[in-house]
Amino acid sequence: MANYYTDIPELKYHLNNPMMERICELKERNYRDKEEFDYAPQDYADTLDSFDKVLEITGEITGEIIAPNAEGVDEEGPHCANGRVEYASGTKQNLDAMVKAGLNGMTMPRRFGGLNFPITPYTMCAEIVSAADAGFGNIWSLQDCIETLYEFGNEDQHSRFIPRICAGATMSMDLTEPDAGSDLQSVMLKATFDEKENCWRLNGVKRFITNGDADLHLVLARSEEGTKDGRGLSMFIYDKEEGGVDVRRIENKLGIHGSPTCELVYKNAKAELCGNRKLGLIKYVMALMNGARLGIAAQSVGLSQAAYNEGLAYAKERKQFGKAIIEFPAVYDMLSIMKAKLDAGRALLYQTSRYVDIYKALDDIARERKLTPEERQEQKKYEKLADAFTPLAKGMNSEYANQNAYDCIQIHGGSGFMLEYACQRIYRDARITSIYEGTTQLQTVAAIRYVTNGSYLATIRDFEAIPCSPEMEPLKARLVEMANKLGACMNIVKEAQNQELLDFVARRLMEMAADCIMAHLLIQDATRAPEMFAKSAVVYLNYVEAEVEKHSSFIHSFNADELVNYRQ
User: Fold this and answer.
1) For residue 104, which of 153, 154, 145 has the smallest C-alpha distance?
2) In the chain, fewer beta carbons within 10 Å around the N or the C end?
3) Taking the CA atoms of the chain, what radius of gyration do you get in angstroms?
4) pTM of the model
5) For 94-108, how does the pLDDT look when each residue is reduced to its tens digit (9 = 90+)?
6) Confidence band of 308 (pLDDT split at 50, 70, 90)
7) 516: which residues sit within 8 A by CB, 6+ positions away?
8) Domain boundary among 434, 455, 482
9) Same domain? 152 vs 16
10) Which residues are catalytic?
11) Is residue 214 part of a domain?
12) Nearest to 353 by CA among 38, 125, 99, 63
């Protein structure tokens, strides 16, 4: 049977990145848990070995259980009866296997029953699972909502809720409403304090809630009567054991059929405040969404891998005109670009997750003691990088997942349009990735300030200073010219001092920056492991060089007066 970890050597390569030593040192607090927990690692090598073993177990479960169940789950889907959700039979088997293997609460401290893993190996597990069944990936990976509860909840909440997640309880984040999708400031689910019972009561409707009948929910609700903006919103914890929330229906979706997307009715549901009032949207949801966006980036990379695997296998087997279609340039061109996008997107995903790991670990240490000036500087550096890279990782990987799924079907030809081939499920599942947890357009809004303030360009210039192999030097020289074009386009738009123009070309600027960053990361990877990445580095550079030139030409020739022609 396939192992979705050991069969993809690129994953182990990213697990062994040099930054991981610092990450493990911070996360393990210099390996102090070894005195209290017999399964805690002794040192860095032991930590990596632990990651490797858990990833291998995840890959084995994915290959032997989740992947074989995927088509049945897609066909059966979850059911809704009497206000409750019942998962598809294959989903139940998947959850049972993951819980029995101890793969829940992975990032939580050992004192709560977690594995104390950094975000990076956990994100790899999310990618692995999503490569087999993206819908199940949603259900399982929503456990990372516990990160927000751990970060902002109190000790009593930690002790009551975190061990349940580590033991296998499911989670959801209840944000969206019928009239509040991307605009979460418009959330109107009402939270009122019950003086008699000394608790909060929630009333209203939530819509498009992934895994909406979960055991524990983080809920965004309006706690300040008379307010209409984000300053009146707070975050609440709802426990299904308390009752008061019914599933009105499960949405009938294009893809990710195994993941129940629910409309929820809150009827005087008992809840408790998480953190402080009024900070629900402006602080807690932002943290929650950043974690979720990294999760969708991982899901997207998993789908990209699945699309590439299906396309490659079919191209090798399918014969036309007397030979396998992979021998035709039109086909191997598509496959090479699919692989290059996969490798580039994965490099960006794990660069981002490592940035998140360092600043999150230092944040956690700061709850125990005061950070040194050097640690504080390190924390600020990586928080800024994580904030800048997260919208790129989510935006670009979700777009690449869609593109790879499209090309996978094209390689299959007419067979790809038939439901018995997995590529159509991958295609349908991929479509949501560029929509939920913030559309690509919203990722552009989050990223554009890092274009205009020069942060991305500064990072690219830092990458230019990193030595590479002689074989990669010509590619790197071309990348310098690409970065120069990005800088010139930035200057043109900034000098125009036209906000509408900036908003109009923001997607192009973001993609130019992301293209340069991912190409640099691939060159670094190809320098360290040419046998894995050298081909992709060449193919990707050729691909994005043309993309950057296309965007540059558009921005240089565009006249802001022409905007009137684009308004409908």
Assistant:
1) 145
2) C
3) 24
4) 0.97
5) 999 999 999 999 999
6) very high
7) 456, 460, 479, 482, 483, 486, 544, 548
8) 434
9) yes
10) 437
11) yes
12) 125
